[in-house]
Specification:
Helix content is 4%, strand content 48%. It has one helix spanning 73-76, and strands at 4-5, 8-11, 16-21, 37-43, 51-58, 66-71, 82-91, 98-109. A hairpin with a 7-residue loop joins β5 (51-58) and β6.
């Protein structure tokens, strides 16, 4: 599976959610995510020890290849405006393989309304 690159914009102090449709690179069909676990983090740089855990979900029964990532407004309000990096990690059933599915930059824009 190829790594999908997607840059995202997160508004500080607001809820954030986006979805990704993953394909099997051999068949171009939706990737069957049944039994997989997914994790995601945002960091200032790739080597930063401080990170924010991103909520991750497999949408539906997993056979459609759709995942979502989200952050509640209570979390985004604590992230300083600026440029960050993020990725989404897939772990197969039985932990036989770990794959980076999505990566990119995350721009956090400052909020005005409090």
């Amino acid at each position: 599976m190829a790594v999908f690159v997607s840059n995202i914009v997160i508004e500080q102090g607001f809820d954030f959610e986006t979805t990704f449709e993953l394909e099997d690179s051999n068949t171009n069909l939706p990737l069957n995510l049944s039994g997989y676990t997914i994790n995601s983090q945002i960091r200032k740089t790739y080597s930063s020890s401080i990170f924010t855990v991103v909520n991750t979900n497999i949408v539906g029964d997993g056979t459609n290849g759709i995942i979502s990532i989200s952050l509640a407004s209570t979390i985004t309000e604590g992230i300083k405006p600026g440029r960050y990096v993020y990725d989404v990690k897939l772990t197969s059933p039985g932990e036989t393989s770990i794959t980076k599915a999505v990566e990119g930059s995350a721009i956090v824009r400052g909020g005005v309304t409090r």
